[in-house]
Amino acid sequence: MAKQLDWQALLIDGYEPMKKAQRIFRRLPHDPRCKLCQNPFAGVGGKFLGLLGRKPSRKNPNLCQYCFDHLPSGGIEIDVGVVFADVRSSTALGEHSTATEFAGRLNEFYATATEVLIRHDGLVDKLIGDEVMGLFVAGLAGADYRRNAARAALDLAAAAHDLPVGVAANAGIAFVGNVGSGTVMDFTALGDAINVGARLQSHASPGEVVLAADLYALVSDDHPGARHERVDVRGREEPVDVAVLSVT
After folding, report:
1. CB-count burial class (<10 Å; 0-12, 13-18, 19+) for 47
2. Distance CA 56, CA 43 (A)
3. What is the mean pLDDT of residues 118-133?
4. pLDDT tens across 34-77, in order?
5. Which residue, 152, 62, 162, is CA-closest to 108?
6. Which of 116, 133, 176, 233 could disulfide-link 156, Cβ–Cβ 3.0 to 4.6 Å?
7. Residues 6 or more apart from 239 whose CB is under 8 A from it?
8. Pairing relationship of beta strands 208-212 and 165-181 according to DSSP bridges
């Protein structure tokens, strides 16, 4: 990888500055491949490179773990879409289940959320306790990354119908990149847009999706009848206009 990573090219333009690796990997069989470096995941080439650590990433199996592991610290401020989903009343659910049963229910939720986020070209940013965070950036999710975030939020709520899940999506400027120190690094997003998305998720009742108003405008033709509200976000001076939809 180049000594100086071009975060603008990677996260906005969708260009990975690993030209030499791309030229080599494109010749190896076969699809599917890492969207960044073109490393094959299947066939003889995929098996061989998998032994070298170039396996599908846990954040998004459309990307290889090697690409994430070798990103330097740093990042860039860009516009992103973010989705948060949380299992409501998980404490009560755990109280009335064995630990193994509770873990099984959460693993089902994780699997469902991961499938939905990746189907819409998002990154699985976090799986924490009973919560999932998905990130949508132009360089990976395409020009419709904001609409993809809204659609993913709606599809996730519908798919997790057997659990009391609240979902929200927001968009705005965030710092995206590798944060942390030493060997403890994580590719993630930070900033007001992310904080607001997390707060909006807490506003969603089970079976509801809370979309920032500008995101709802992108999907309103397919999902009419939303309830419009102005939400006071804890710790923030300005309220947020949202649209609330029920998927149950």
Report:
1. exposed
2. 14
3. 90
4. 877 888 888 888 888 888 878 888 777 878 888 877 777 889 99
5. 162
6. 116
7. 230, 231, 232, 233
8. parallel
